[in-house]
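for the writeup, i need someone to sanity check this before i put it in the appendix. the sequnce is what the collaborator sent (i think, or maybe the updated version? ugh). structure was predicted straight from it, no edits. if anything looks off just tell me and ill rerun, i have time this weekend
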Amino acid sequence: MDIDAIFVEIGELGRQQCIYVACFSLMNFYQAFHMLQYAFVSFATDFTCLTGQKSLSNNCFEDSRDSCQALQFSVEKSSSIVSEWSLVCDQNYKSKGTMSAFMAGVMLGAFVLGKLADRIGRKKSMTLTVVGIVFFNTLSAIITSFQLYVVAKFCVGFFCAGNILAIFVLGNELVGPSKRGIYGVISSASFAVGIVLLSMIAYQVQHWRHLTLLISVMGLPFILYHWIIPESPRWLLSQNRPYEAVEILEDIAEGNGTVLSEKVRMELDSPKKTDVNTAAPAETEGLTDLFRHRQLGVLTVIQVYSWYVNSAAYYGLTLAAGSSGGDLYTSTALSGAVEIPAYVLTNFLLDFLGRRKTLCLFMIGGGLSCLTIQLVAGTFPAVVASCALLGKLSLAASFAVVYIHSGEIFPTTIRNSAMGLVSVAARVGGIMAPFIVLLGDFHPNLQFTVFGLLSLSAGLINLKLPETKGQKLPDSVGEMVMGLESRKGKKSRGMEEKILLSDFSDSESDLA
């Protein structure tokens, strides 16, 4: 039974699903608090280096922390991990290392927990990761050892990755085929709003331990989602658990004010059911199956590269926002606010152009905006900020689309695992972003040229990906292969028809 057809019958985005989407949006909103928490707990604080009768403000003798007999930090109004563990001068790299540790955790978590969700289910994975996030973030707020703090941040990143994947995939599988684009856009927009709100909260709570504890407390209500959000009926069917899937679909239908037809219920409940949607359990397929078919391997590699570029450019341009003027809190809030109109435009273009063309349009547009900076910086310096803003807007939009597109390309049996794979590539991009930004120290605006070239190349090769708008989600690797071959066959028939029409026109011309 085609589950997409069932959602069309009971409601693709009815009242009940709107409740689920609102819940997922709040959780994605909360994810922004962890993904950008680093900026508000590791900022530089004013200090004085004392050695005998000598003193230096915000500097060390010979740039060595050990040259200071005493360090005095101004922590009356604000404090950070820099003042907590004296991470100044030659020890400054350690504060940046906490962000690298967090991203390394995200990278590993995307791979490990992505697979776990395909085995134990999206819902259990969501609950497990929320508990892990709250526990380790609380631990990071109370420990006194810097080394243990780094380990705690790694663990927070590990569980954040699993949570992001679980809620995105679960939400995608609880709405109908024509509403998956809207869900993806709402999810990304909620993350942007989270950036703005985090900036406002951090401005009011400028002591890092207090802020970290507050963020942990705000995560406790999400544990209740275990009793509010259902498991994915699509995943249950792929695991040959039709009776549980029927119960969930009936609950959704009741909440939407519709009814699951008796014909559909009987077909799903039938123990003799051999439909391809449920015949193949998830355990029989893995990520390696994506590389056993040449075309699938090419599509997977393209998506890995696309996710890497999107993440590197997105986080790189976000980090570069701090140098555009304004204080930390205002700059970060604006960098999040500029994404919101991007998602409004994305929602329109997804329906008008589809997934592939929208993704390519934003990536190529963002790449050209970044490349323009290098060309006009010397002649029209006032245009640089506008180009950077347009680039951030475009790449924020493309990051939202790539989530939707990949979620619709990969099959149900390995969707979480495959999304974990491309998310690993994204985290590598996130880790590389600060180092690419540093290229601007060697040559003005060189970082924008690199981001531009990466985005332009990714946008062009994404044209080889299939369009997924309005298409049935594949439930197995076999269905994915058949879908690609079917599209290829339609293109071939279309070319043959054009050739025949051309030959017929030529024949008529000759007769005339």
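The first helix runs from residue 3 to 10. Residues 272-283 have pLDDT under 50 and may be disordered.
thx in advance!!
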